[in-house]
């Protein structure tokens, strides 16, 4: 999965952090310490971790994800992350190395 979306409510910036939906990579969710939960009144499941967003972002960076965008929507902060596959990362490195230095 090349994209990840995490969010938290502004008044809860110390956790919990929502890190995925029912279709998220279970291994990645386990690494983030997230549990799959369903809340009363919702017809969907979501993965949540008690870690604060900063800790989640750091963990995802260690896995090769980078923040593509961040937004505040109402009382919610949302970060979109992307993890290039190895071919994309190699192509990007080649492009960066080919740039003129002047």
Automatic annotation (TrEMBL):
Q: Name one GO biological process term.
A: negative regulation of biosynthetic process
Q: Which Gene3D superfamilies match?
A: GTP cyclohydrolase I feedback regulatory protein GFRP
Keyword Cell division attached = no
Pfam families in the record, alphabetically?
GFRP (PF06399)
Keywords, alphabetical: Cytoplasm, Membrane, Nucleus
InterPro entries noted in UniProt? GFRP_sf, GTP_CycHdrlase_I_reg
List the subcellular locations.
Cytoplasm, Cytosol; Nucleus membrane
Q: Which GO terms describe its cellular component?
A: cytosol; nuclear membrane
Question: In Gene Ontology terms, what is one molecular function of this protein?
Answer: GTP cyclohydrolase binding
**Keyword presence, Ribonucleoprotein:** no
The record's comment on protein family reads: Belongs to the GFRP family.
Record-given protein name: GTP cyclohydrolase 1 feedback regulatory protein
Organism field: Hypsibius exemplaris
